[in-house]
Structure formats: C-alpha cells, structure tokens
Amino acid sequence: MNAVAARIAAARLLATPRLAPFLILALVDWMIITLSFAAAAHWPHPLLACACWVVIGTRQHALMILGHDGTHRLACRNRRTNDVVTALLCLWPIGVTLRGYRRFHGPHHRNPGAAGDPELPHKTGRLYDGTGRPGDFALRTLRAALGLDFVRYTRLMADVQRSSGLELWVLLGFQLLLATSLWAVGLGWIWLAWWSCVPTSCWAASSVREWGEHVGIAGTHRLHVPWLMRWLCYPHHSQMHYEHHACPGVPCWRLPNARALDRGAVTPLRSLLGEHLRG
After folding, report:
1. pLDDT at position 199, please?
2. In the chain, is it the N or the C terminus that has fewer CB atoms within a 10 Å radius of its CB?
3. Cβ pair 277, 137 in contact under 8 A
C-alpha cells in the first residue's frame, strides 16, 4: 500500500461518529455556561458580568461548532438520534434550525470560497479584498462584540433559516417554552442574558473564526492558532478547518488525528493577518 492509499484508509477509520464524545463536549460547554450564570448571580459585579458575558458567548460559539458537526451527521451513527441531539443541545438554543443550516452549509463544501459558496455574499469589504488593515479587523470584532454588527448577523441568519420549513416554528415554540419556564421560576433574566450574548460575544467569536478559514483563496487555510485564541474563537479544533474540508466525515474531536496524517506546512494565524491585512 502506497503512502496516499494508507492516508485514505486511515482517514476512513477516523470517520466514525460516536455519541459519547459528542455528548461529553456539549455537556462540558453547558457546564461552563451554567457556572458562568451562577457566578454572575452570586457575585453581581460589573467586571464579573463582563467576564461571564465573554465566556458564555464563546461557549455558545462552541455549541455552534458541535452543531456544525451534527449537520454533517457526525454526532451519532443513528441519523434520527444525531439530529435530535444536535438540535436540542446545540442549534435550537442559539436560534438556528438544523434543516436550514444543513441546506445552507452543503454548497459551501462543494465551492469553498468560490462562486456558488453561500457564505461568499456575507464576506465582502476591506477585510476580504486585500485592502484592509489590522485595525479594521480589531474594529469589526469590537463592533460585533458590542452588537453593532447586528445587520450582518441578521442577514446571515435569514439566509441560514430560509429553508427551515416547519422546523422554524418548532424552534420558536422551543424558545417560547424555555422563556416561559424560566420566567415561571423567577429566572427570566437568564433567557434575556443568554440572548444578549448570541448576537454580540458569540457573534464576535464566530466572526474571527470564519475570517481565517477561507480568506483570499478558493480553498481552505491550514492554520496554527495559539491556545488562548483557540479557546476563545476556535473551539473543538475548529482551527483545523482544512482537515475538515479534506475529511468531512471526521468528527471534530478526531481532527488532530486527521492532521497527523499529513505533516504539511501550516500557516500561523498571525502570519495570515499580516498577509491579508496590510492596508
């Protein structure tokens, strides 16, 4: 067996969805979110509230990454179980339908960064055409965190939800049930605080990540990201987006194994910023 055939065979072995690792990752994210809300309630201080707002938003983004795995049916071998777990634990809580996201995301894999990529209309302006500067990147991230990028967020969500069908109404019912249940036990502030994070700190983390995946090329960058940035903006090995496109059947928790199959060069995120944001 030659080297290429060996790598293909190894990648196929990695492409085995398993529910237990998926649930563990999701439950850890939910545990961090729960502890953040508990800390904010127990020690009501503005600085702690800001820290919890960042942490909750980054974990919402982490749930989004797991939801992305679920749209590829990488959470569980049983398709129905995969979809139920993905919707309830990952996507519905942040206001995204599984059906809508799956239909939106599929063409992206066929045409990443090129004509036909449904994400392309949402990636325009100085940050993407080579005329941007590092300050522009920092400013957009800050604007997203403060909720000033709400128009771009709603446009993307509208495109994602466009093909949701009946599931959109189920999602709205899910959110209504959640809100009324929390208000009934005197915890309605949690629902409000949750939704203050989705289009702000969560959206800011997502914006940082998506910029580095395909900017400047009709393909995918093979990135190296520092550990703190991984925790904040590239959770669950999402910096290994190149490996995900090369092996879309490999769950996120096995992407490091997929990267180990190919010892090719990686691009540090700092270098990517310097290359594409020179002004």
Report:
1. 97
2. N
3. yes
Encode pLDDT of 179-237 as tens digits. Answer: 999 999 999 999 999 999 999 999 999 999 998 888 877 778 899 999 999 999 999 99
Question: What does residue 267 show for φ and ψ, rounded to 5 degrees?
Answer: -105, 120
Burial of residue 210 (CB within 10 Å: 0-12, 13-18, 19+) is middle
Q: Are 278 and 42 in contact (CB under 8 A)?
A: no
Buried b (16+ CB within 10 A) or exposed e, 223-242: bebeeebbebbbbbbbbbbb
pLDDT of 258-268, one tens digit each? Answer: 898 887 789 89
Nearest to 75 by CA among 196, 252, 233, 209: 252
Q: Which residues pair with 223 in a beta bridge?
A: 267
CA distance 33 to 204: 17
Q: Which two tokens stand for residue 186?
A: 């005197």
Question: What is the DSSP secondary-structure string of 120-156?
Answer: GGGS-SHHHHT---HHHHHHHHHHHHTTTTHHHHHHH
Global pTM?
Answer: 0.92
Cβ contact 113:219 at 8 Å? yes
DSSP assignment letter at 72: T
> For 240-254, how does the pLDDT look when each residue is reduced to its tens digit (9 = 90+)?
999 999 888 999 999
Helix, strand, coil share of the chain (percent; to 5): 70, 0, 30
Residue 268 DSSP code: E
Is the Cβ–Cβ distance between 56 and 199 less than 8 Å?
Answer: no
Question: Is the distance from CB of 96 to CB of 88 less than 8 angstroms?
Answer: no
